[in-house]
Amino acid sequence: MDSAFIPEGVKRCPFSQFLAGLGVVGVVLAWGIYAMLLCWLKGLNQTNMNDSYGFALWIWADLAIIALGGGAFFSGFLKYIVGKDELKNIINFAVLIGFICYSSALLILAIDIGQPLRGWFIFWHANVHSMLTEVAFCLSCYFGVLTIEYIPLILENRKIDKIPFFHNLSHNMHEIMAVFASTGAFLSCFHQGSLGGVAGVLFGRPFAYREGLLVWPWTFFLFTWSAAAYGPCFTIFLTRLLEKITGKKLVKDNVIDLLAKISGWMIFTYIIAKIIDTWYWAAVTVHSKGQTLMDFYDDNMFYGLWILVAEIVVGGIFPALILLTKKGRNSEALLWTAVILACLGVCINRWVMVLQVMAAPVLPFEDWALYYPSWQEVATTILPVAYGIILVMISYRYLPIFPQEKELNPIESY
Amino acid sequence: MFPFISFEWVWDIGHIVFMGSLWYALSILGIGMTYCIIKAAIDTQKKDDTSHHH
Lengths: 414, 54
Description:
The structure holds two protein chains of two kinds. By secondary structure, chain A is mostly helical. Helices cover 69% and strands 1% of the residues of chain A. Chain A has 15 helices and two strands. A two-stranded antiparallel sheet of chain A has the order 1-2. The longest helix of chain A has 36 residues. Chain A is globular and about 70 Å long. The longest helix of chain B is centred in the middle third of the chain and has 41 residues. The interface between A and B is medium-sized, with 28 and 25 residues.
């Protein structure tokens, strides 16, 4: 039925099966949209946020998907600026994931601000002393870059490409893509960093507070570094997952190997910096504020020392060591383990920097403030996942996302 | 109407850096896309002309 729109030389499932898949995910999407409308129409009383939790599940989801979507800017940086040409075979998918992650982040923010009609105030009445203003500027601009990077993919659809203007437009955009990608890398570095900076400048909350360089606390650099390190792991994870679902090989092993190796080195260097940062914070910063390390991990099962070990050892050192070795990268099971642990590691880091910061008591008479998200918060957090699956389904079916797919999966003619 | 003509707005270093960077990035994206669209229109026009001559 839609075969005229499917890229030449590749095989896709029947249209009815595709529609059934869309329908199933569409139900989850509709649930999320319903919760989103509740938040917009009835207000933020639909959430369990309170005076202790001005930032809650949404902001964690925001920070996590922005970090995981970091594969787009870092792959673009590696391909267009460093010149790793092999990555051209995975960059389209990285851009798609980045586009989904950043549009989802903006959607979550639109729900989180409670009054979306005033969302433009942050641009018009900018508070230039706020790290979040920098985040809003860079995030919106970078979403523009990702849109610009995604448009040529849409224009390369078999039918659209036949229209001369669109064919030429796509060609021209590809020609100057390095300019857009460089701008994107610059913007991405700053908003990733500023998201870390938001926590690092909280001098009233010793759990998050860090010293730094000029106006930037160390968390500024650690967040940018971790997004560049862990983002490619999410790209690899989703590529492998899509290969499992479709039953096809979509990207050659040497491309995955290169990205995994670079990611491994980035995680390895990042985790060393993170360990030094944690040690200095525990030994010097916390004591200077009159507290000790265990003040932040004691008397509380939910935020015990296990979370620090899970973040640094399980989600940092383990994946780094696996990805650094050729044997680890070549073993299917170990590669899966490494990318899953890496994704969990960066999500735990963002969880700690958002929610544990809020939970830890600041004053001697305070207790741990725990928080449970309402179903509306959970539904609106799952909403972007459903939206992402739908966009991947549509893009995979109709756009030439994987340039090597045709070569790796030749269609036998009888 | 505009934020920079309201009484709170001061063109200090913070505003220059923030707003300057924002408009610098937006200009690159805007100029880049305008170039691509105009060039695509010219290229399409040229191809049309060539095919008409043949």
